[in-house]
Amino acid sequence: MFRIILMGPPGVGKGTQARLLSSTLSVPAISTGDMFRRQIRDQTALGRELQALIDTGEYVPDDITTAVLADRLAAADAQLGFILDGYPRTRAQIGDLDKLLSEASIGIDRVFVLAASRATLISRLTDRATTDGRSDDSPDVVLRRLQIYERETAPIVEEYGRRGLIVEISGEGAPERVAEDMMRAVGRI
Ligand code: ADP
């Protein structure tokens, strides 16, 4: 049973690694960003409400984000483990997640913190803008997202450090290399 959190700045490869880990470990990858983008694509009421925030790189409010995550964690396929990609990102969300997990009498096994240089992050996000066409990958929004990550999320990573859950992984290498490093660490769970 694997309950894993992936943390790290935009462009570090959380989504790619979440998918790779998900297929290797046979547990779902849960991305709040993907769930929000689906709502926007399907033009739901929530999607319409969130579009402007996401397009400018701002975080979605904690209550909305946690409600979406709680729903997803309650699904049958998440009962035997999960990879969280992009949640939690704020101190409030760490508390929300603690509460959700303690209600279910479960805990997190490992928090992988992926890191790469700012130059790598910017060049990957800029490249992705031309291939994926994500509305928040434009150059000014990319810089804004990195800034918000540094301000809101980087300072809270250490909370999991205090709990002894963190494994730091370099996200600079090829995806398969990064995945191998994580699998080696998963073997030690
Ligand atoms: P990235 O990690 O590259 O920023 P994501 O797909 O994880 O991309 O997130 C895209 C956007 O979705 C974020 O910029 C933010 O607006 C919103 N979002 C995703 N997860 C969260 C979260 N946990 N809390 C607040 N906003 C979130």
TrEMBL record:
Gene3D superfamilies for this protein: P-loop containing nucleotide triphosphate hydrolases (3.40.50.300)
GO cellular component terms attached to this protein's record: cytoplasm
GO terms classed as biological process: AMP salvage
CDD domains the UniProt entry points to: ADK
Record keywords, A-Z: ATP-binding, Cytoplasm, Kinase, Nucleotide biosynthesis, Nucleotide-binding, Transferase
Pathway note: Purine metabolism; AMP biosynthesis via salvage pathway; AMP from ADP: step 1/1
Catalytic activity: AMP + ATP = 2 ADP
GO MF term (any one): AMP kinase activity
Xref: InterPro entries: Adenylat/UMP-CMP_kin, Adenylat_kinase_CS, P-loop_NTPase
Subcellular location field: Cytoplasm
Residue spans crossing the bilayer: none
Main localization (coarse): cytoplasm
Residues binding ATP: G11, V12, G13, K14, G15, T16, R128, G173
Database matches in SUPFAM superfamilies: P-loop containing nucleoside triphosphate hydrolases
Region (NMP): 31-60
Residues annotated for AMP binding in this entry: T32, R37, E58, Y59, V60, G86, Y87, P88, R89, Q93, R134, R145
Nucleotide-binding recorded as keyword: yes
Enzyme Commission number(s) from the entry: 2.7.4.3
Subunit organization: Monomer.
Biological function: Catalyzes the reversible transfer of the terminal phosphate group between ATP and AMP. Plays an important role in cellular energy homeostasis and in adenine nucleotide metabolism.
Family to which this protein belongs: Belongs to the adenylate kinase family.
Entry text on domains: Consists of three domains, a large central CORE domain and two small peripheral domains, NMPbind and LID, which undergo movements during catalysis. The LID domain closes over the site of phosphoryl transfer upon ATP binding. Assembling and dissambling the active center during each catalytic cycle provides an effective means to prevent ATP hydrolysis.
Protein name as it appears in the record: Adenylate kinase
Species assigned in the record: Microbacterium pygmaeum
